[in-house]
Design brief:
single chain, mainly alpha, Butyryl-CoA Dehydrogenase, subunit A, domain 3, elongated, PMEI_plant, Pectinesterase_inhib_dom, signal, pectinesterase inhibitor activity, Pectinesterase inhibitor 2-like
Length: 183
């Protein structure tokens, strides 16, 4: 009988260890809840966009706040890259000097925004919420600077929607950066 108990001790110890590791790991990877989404979207620049984003993007249901911020920054980066290329194409294809100047300025602004988004991802990885907030705000400012001149050249509705989406995605990241756990 004593031999039987001795053989089970390592197995019981292993099970207890795995339970402890699993439960502590679970505390660090808490998935976003509907309440979190409501809190984030109620503070977002465009609550309707925010709620629609979460509703139409099921992948966000499996992420924690940091994961969602990364997802949003990557999405905004992709849109900013496409937007930059569109401004480059518009600048090359227009003969009007004023329009060319506006498109070139927007091209530069979106190049800068891409750099800010890259820096934001690094800040997120370093858990530097203040820098994350500053970098995403800077990317938004780059886009806003472009927006002030665009109405005079009447860009396509698709381009305006992309610009708006970048701004809205960034706005959600700003809210998240303010509620991420502080280190």
């Amino acid at each position: 009988m004593g031999l039987y108990v001795k053989n089970k001790f390592p197995l019981v110890s292993l099970v207890v260890f795995l339970i402890l590791v699993t439960s502590s790991y679970g505390r660090f990877t808490i998935k976003i809840s509907e309440g979190d989404i409501s809190t984030i979207c109620s503070k977002a620049k465009n609550p309707s966009f925010c709620f629609n984003f979460f509703k139409s993007t099921p992948a966000t249901k499996t992420l924690d706040l940091s994961g969602i911020a990364k997802f949003l920054i990557n999405d905004a980066t992709k849109d900013a890259s496409v937007t930059q290329k569109q401004f480059e194409s518009l600048a090359k294809s227009t003969a009007d000097p004023r329009s060319k100047n506006i498109y070139n300025q927007c091209l530069e602004n979106y190049k800068n925004a891409l750099g800010e988004f890259d820096a934001a991802l690094k800040a997120l990885e370093a858990k530097d919420n203040a820098s994350l907030n500053i970098k995403v705000s800077a990317a938004m400012t780059d886009g806003d600077s472009c927006n002030s001149e665009l109405p005079s050249v009447k860009p396509s509705p698709q381009l305006l929607k992309q610009i708006s989406d970048i701004d809205n995605l960034s706005g959600i990241v700003l809210v998240i950066s303010n509620i991420l756990p502080k280190n």
